[in-house]
């Protein structure tokens, strides 16, 4: 025992031990000095520039190095070839101009027509007032020297591109727009295509910048699974009631403003069959309305930072329709589901508040636990030191007695 203690103290007081200790401390000092030197000088402000997309949006990119430049590799030649091919599909449309200036004779005729219409309106209003009837406040628009081409394809294309906030060199986005237009033309009877695109699809095209062509086709497939009626858009024929075109455009609008995954589309298709077969909902509009509500589900405001995907939205649909917990009938399924999804959102909010409260309590408990750990470790070390000293003292006393 004495020899072991002697070796321990010899090691502690040995010069080599302190040489190594001094070397390690010196290396730590050099590391700290180097790190200090690297952070001594002030950093330079990075080079900044505003892209066309940032200017249109009025918001800067979070990544200061992002330039919003087209990096897809799609060239102007590829885009131009696609654009020219699309032009040939509607050869009689206006592809160059968006407006024209009236000749002097045309403008004078328009002005004369406005004057006569205005005088007739004043006479009619005076007659109505003589009988004590409030006349209409409608004002006949004053003629303009410029005539706008409402159905100009160039105007339509420019308006859609402006709605996409796309860079002028982003030829891939422009090709995507053309492909969407071609898809809508494929669903039409090809009569008055330019008028049809403006009247029917302009709003959809402008708002579908976050909606891919595949997603549009998925929406149409879902719509067809309910209506069982193929879509044929026409500018000359009256739409069939069973086509439910207004509901389809509502689907487009919802999907354009939502983040709907492929899994959710599968769930919606399954739900459509469930409503018609199991729940016996015979009203097509009612089924489409329920599907629209399910498609609109968005609980992103209740999700944690690391909680991605559409798990909560899909859970809400599954809990209501498939868990046999909620009683509903074909007549009240829409109202019941609307009430259910609102309550589901409120419960998510309450659950988040409870989680935050538990997190705060757990953080406080961790602080308390650390204090106890430090306290226990300190006195453990102190106790071990005392035990060692007591044993050392007893050993010395025994050696003295023996000697």
Shape verdict:
elongated
Distance between the termini: 16 Å
Class from secondary-structure proportions: mainly alpha
The overall strand count is 2
How large is the count of helical segments? 14
What order do the SSEs take from the amino end to the carboxyl end, as H and E? HHHHEHEHHHHHHHHH
Percent strand equals under 5%
Provide the spatial order of strands within the biggest beta sheet: 1-2
Short description:
This protein has 403 residues and is an all-alpha fold.
Features:
mainly alpha, two-stranded antiparallel ribbon, 1% strand, 403 residues
Descriptive account of the structure:
The chain is mainly α. The chain has 14 helices and 2 strands, in the order H-H-H-H-E-H-E-H-H-H-H-H-H-H-H-H. Strands 1-2 form a two-stranded antiparallel sheet. The longest helix has 70 residues. The radius of gyration is 38 Å and the shape is elongated. The model has no long low-confidence stretch (mean pLDDT 80).
Secondary-structure map:
Elements: H1 2-13, H2 15-38, H3 52-57, H4 76-89, E1 99-101, H5 104-130, E2 146-148, H6 153-164, H7 171-186, H8 193-207, H9 213-227, H10 245-256, H11 262-277, H12 284-296, H13 311-321, H14 333-402
Antiparallel strand pairs: 1-2
Helix pairs in contact: 4-7, 6-8, 7-8, 9-10, 9-11, 10-12, 11-12, 12-14
């Amino acid at each position: 025992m004495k020899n072991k203690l002697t070796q321990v103290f010899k090691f502690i007081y040995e010069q080599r031990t302190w040489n190594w200790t001094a070397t390690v401390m010196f290396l730590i000092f050099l590391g700290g000095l180097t790190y200090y030197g690297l952070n001594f000088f002030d950093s330079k402000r990075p080079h900044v520039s505003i892209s066309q997309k940032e200017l249109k949006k009025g918001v800067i990119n979070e990544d200061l190095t992002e330039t919003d430049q087209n990096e897809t590799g799609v060239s102007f030649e590829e885009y131009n070839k696609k654009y020219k091919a699309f032009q040939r599909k509607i050869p009689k449309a206006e592809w160059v101009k968006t407006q024209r200036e009236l000749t002097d004779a045309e403008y004078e005729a328009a002005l004369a027509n406005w004057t006569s219409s205005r005088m007739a309106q004043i006479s009619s209003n005076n007659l109505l007032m003589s009988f004590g009837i409030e006349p209409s406040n409608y004002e006949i628009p004053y003629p303009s020297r410029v005539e706008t081409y409402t159905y100009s394809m160039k105007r339509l294309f420019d308006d859609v591109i402006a709605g996409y906030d796309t860079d002028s060199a982003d030829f891939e986005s422009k090709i995507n727009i053309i492909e969407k237009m071609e898809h809508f033309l494929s669903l039409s009877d090809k009569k008055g295509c330019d008028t049809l695109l403006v009247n029917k699809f302009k709003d959809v095209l402008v708002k579908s910048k976050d909606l891919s062509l595949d997603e549009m086709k998925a929406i149409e497939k879902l719509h067809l699974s309910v209506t069982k009626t193929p879509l044929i858009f026409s500018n000359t024929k009256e739409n069939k009631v069973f086509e439910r075109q207004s509901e389809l455009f509502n689907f487009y609008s919802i999907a354009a403003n939502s983040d709907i995954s492929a899994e959710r589309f599968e769930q919606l298709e399954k739900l459509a069959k469930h409503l018609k077969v199991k729940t016996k909902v015979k009203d097509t509009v009612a089924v489409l309305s329920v599907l629209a509500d399910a498609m609109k589900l968005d609980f992103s405001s209740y999700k944690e930072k690391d909680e991605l995907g559409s798990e909560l939205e899909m859970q809400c649909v599954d809990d209501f329709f498939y868990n046999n917990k909620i009683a509903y009938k074909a007549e009240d399924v829409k109202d019941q589901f609307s009430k259910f999804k609102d309550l589901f959102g409120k419960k998510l909010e309450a659950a988040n508040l409870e989680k935050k409260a538990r997190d705060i309590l757990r953080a406080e408990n961790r602080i308390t636990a650390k204090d106890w750990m430090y306290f226990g470790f300190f006195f453990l070390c102190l106790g071990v030191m005392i035990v060692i000293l007591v044993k050392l003292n007893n050993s010395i006393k025994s050696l003295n007695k023996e000697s």
